[in-house]
Amino acid sequence: MNRQYSFLRLVLFWCVLVPISSCIDPFEPDVKGAPESLLVVSGFINSTGVSTIKLSRTQNLAQDNNPPSESGASVFIEEEAGARYALVEVVPGNYSSGNLMISASKRCRLYLKTKDSKVYASDYVAVRTTPAIDNVAWKADATGVRIFVNSHDANDQTHYYRWNYEETWQYTSAYNSSYKYDNGQIVERNEDIYHCWVTEKSTLIQLGNTTRLNQDVVADYPLTSLSPTSVKLRYKYSILVRQYAQTQEEYKYWENLKKNTESIGTIFDPLPSQLTGNVHNLGNSAEPVIGFVGAYSVSEKRIFIENSELPKTWRMSTGYESCLPLDTIKVSEVKNYFNTPNYLPVYPISNMMGQIIGYTGASTDCVDCRRRGTNVKPDFWR
C-alpha cells in the first residue's frame, strides 16, 4: 500500500511539474530592502610577486554592461604587526602592488578605504606556499585533445588546490595581403597582417582536493579539452597553467561561487547559496561584502602543442569559413572600393603585358588578422 501511495505521489509530482516547467514566463521579483550595490573584492595576496586586486560593485540582473569599477580607493597589503605595502590603481578599479616577498611565517590581510571613506579589510590569513606543478600533460584521442595537470605536496600540507590558465594560439587570416590603399593609390604594406596570435583566459573555476587520499597528490586533473576541428590546434597552441594553494575556508568559498555561477539553470541544479567571504566593512559589520582574499605563492608551467604532433586525419577549422571569395576590382574602381577601412586590396591582377589592370579585394575582417588578435609575437613563443 505504501509503495502504491509513493508511486501515485511521484506520478502526481511529474504531472504538475511538466506543465509548469514547459511554460515558464520571465519574472523579475521586487526585492525590497536590498542594497543598491555591494562591494566585490577579487584577487589574492601574491607572497612572491605582484598582487593585483580588482574592486567593483554588483549591479541589477537586468543590466548587461560591465559591473561598475570602484575607483579612487586607497588599497594596502598589511602584515600583522608589521610592514604595509601600498597598491597603485593602474586602470579604474584595478590595483597592483610592487614585486613583493612576504615570508611564509607571516600573516597578512588586505586593507582598503573607498573614496567615500568606507573602510574594509579582509581577515588576517597565514601565507601558504604553493607546491610546484609536476607537469601539464595532454592526450590526443578520437574526442580531441585533453589537457591535465599533475602536482603533489611532499609535506602533506596543501590538500586544497585551485587552477586557472591562459591559452595562446597562432592563426592566419583568410587572405594574405601585402598591399594597402594610401593617399589615393595602392602601395606595398610593410606590416604583416596575416600571422597573428590570440590569448584567452579561462573562465571556469577549477578546484581539486586530496583530503580523501592517503597522499597529497593530484593526478591527471582535467583542465580543458579541444575538439579535433579546433582552430586553436591549426598551427601551434600553448597553455600556461597557474596553481594556487587554498585554505579549506577559501576552497569552500570558491566551491560555492562555482555552484552559483556554473551550475544554475535547471531544477536539478543546486540552489544558489550565500557567499561567505572574509572581507568586512570595519564600520558596519552588517554590510555584506563579496570576496575572499587569501595569501599564497603561485606555481606555473607552460606547454606547447604543435600541429605536427596531432593525428594527420584531423582537419582544423580556419575560423574564417564565412569569408566570401575574393572580388575583382578594376583600376578605375579602386578608389570607390578601397577608400574605406572596411575593405582591403589583396594582390594585383596583371595582363599579359605585365600591366596592372586591377586588384583582388576582401572584407577587412577576412584580411586583417588583428581584428581578432595581435600580430606581435608573444615573448614566450618559440
Quick tags:
2 domains, five-stranded antiparallel β-sheet, about 375 residues, disordered N terminus, mainly beta
Blueprint of the fold:
Elements: H1 2-21, E1 39-43, E2 45-46, E3 50-57, E4 74-79, E5 84-91, E6 94-99, E7 107-113, E8 119-122, E9 125-126, E10 133-141, E11 144-152, E12 160-172, E13 179-182, E14 185-188, E15 195-201, E16 206-209, E17 217-226, E18 236-245, H2 248-262, E19 279-281, E20 295-296, E21 298-306, E22 327-330, H3 334-338, E23 343-350, E24 356-363, H4 364-367
Parallel strand pairs: 2-20
Antiparallel strand pairs: 1-3, 3-6, 4-5, 4-7, 5-6, 7-8, 7-9, 8-19, 10-11, 11-17, 12-15, 12-16, 12-18, 13-14, 18-21, 22-24, 23-24
Radius of gyration: 27 Å
Range of strand content: 35-45%
Separate helix tally: 4
Task: Output the structural class.
Answer: mainly beta
Q: What best-fitting shape do the alpha-carbon axes yield?
A: globular
Low-confidence stretches: 1-23
The H/E string reads HEEEEEEEEEEEEEEEEEEHEEEEHEEH
- Mean pLDDT, to the nearest integer, reads 90
